[in-house]
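Appendix C: a fully annotated inverse folding record. The material below is reproduced so that readers can follow the format used throughout the book. The structure is listed first as tokens, followed by the designed sequence.
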């Protein structure tokens, strides 16, 4: 054994000495030489911190008659030893070494106290310059690794990559929140959403999607939601009754004589199927407020059970759609 052309059985680094020999007697000779040297130079080797490793595929016998001495103190035989931070095993297996490297790597990674907002480039640089060297220390001596050892190393790397990926999740969440904020701001200030905000009165507009119980009712709700965002248009003259309006849907559903039959049928249902307080309150509403009520406004003081409320909304939405369909047919036949 040696380094390049220098042969040596006793590689030494500072005060760490290792002695290599082919037989128990030879190792005892080296230990005796070392002990004599320490006595001459008035220093002491700690036999308690020293160990003998026997590199062999079979485990050493516990009742092994061979004992080594450093002066008068015995040196124990052990299975593994940490020499210069590298675990050596008597069977020359690397499992313990790899487990140790992974533990050190994990400790080094968490010692960095990586916060969620740290840039992935920075995390990557810290990983390669701080964490990897602590894992790979002494890797020059790794050879013929077992499948499990390789898997452990992969698991560690995968864990760190996944942990560092938290940053991406944080960014995604921040971007989503920003979009939601922008949308809310736009909905609060943009004229297109004035009607929508009035109808929902600060409540989430998605409550409407709780009303439909089948595909047809979903279509009706979609139609009503479109009406919520109808932009204000210049005044027009009704081709049925000749009166002026700015919102064609409000006109045909609340005042236009052309849809009076539909409106009467709707009134009859409201009077017959619902509490009298509802029709009493509706009688006093102006066309604008009645239109808001038809669109699902919750500004009315009338309270109803959920089932009643659901069926009332669907009744109103259906009436709106029928009135719009009637007007569309009328326009088509008069043009
Ligand atoms: Zn009209």
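Designed amino acids, in order:
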């Amino acid at each position: 054994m040696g380094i390049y052309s220098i042969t040596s059985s006793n590689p030494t680094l500072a005060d760490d000495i290792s002695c290599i020999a082919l037989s128990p007697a030879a190792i005892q000779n080296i230990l005796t030489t070392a002990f004599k040297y320490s006595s001459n130079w008035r220093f002491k080797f700690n036999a308690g911190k020293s160990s003998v490793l026997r590199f062999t595929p079979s485990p050493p016998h516990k009742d092994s008659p061979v004992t080594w001495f450093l002066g008068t103190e015995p040196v124990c035989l052990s299975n593994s030893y940490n020499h210069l931070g590298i675990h050596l095993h008597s069977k020359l297996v690397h499992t313990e070494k790899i487990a140790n490297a992974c533990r050190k790597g994990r400790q080094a990674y968490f010692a960095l106290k990586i916060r969620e907002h740290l840039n992935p480039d920075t995390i990557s640089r810290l990983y390669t310059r701080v964490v990897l060297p602590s894992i790979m220390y002494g890797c020059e001596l790794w050879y013929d690794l077992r499948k499990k050892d390789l898997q452990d190393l992969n698991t560690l790397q995968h864990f760190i990559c996944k942990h560092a990926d938290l940053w991406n999740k944080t960014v995604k969440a921040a971007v989503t929140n920003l979009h939601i904020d922008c949308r809310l701001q736009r909905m609060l200030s943009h004229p297109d959403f004035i009607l929508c905000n009035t109808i929902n009165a600060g409540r989430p507009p998605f409550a409407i999607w709780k009303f439909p119980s089948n595909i047809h009712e979903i279509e009706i709700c979609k139609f009503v939601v479109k009406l919520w965002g109808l932009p204000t248009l210049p005044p027009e003259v009704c081709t049925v009754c000749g009166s002026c309006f700015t919102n064609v849907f409000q006109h045909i559903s609340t005042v236009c004589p052309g849809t009076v039959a539909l409106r009467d049928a709707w009134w009859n249902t409201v009077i017959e199927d619902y509490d009298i307080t509802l029709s009493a309150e509706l009688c006093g509403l102006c066309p604008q407020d009645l239109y808001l009520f038809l669109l699902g406004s919750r500004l009315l003081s009338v309270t109803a059970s959920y089932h009643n409320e659901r069926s009332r909304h669907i009744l109103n939405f259906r009436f709106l759609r029928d009135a719009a369909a009637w007007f569309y047919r009328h326009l088509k036949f008069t043009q």
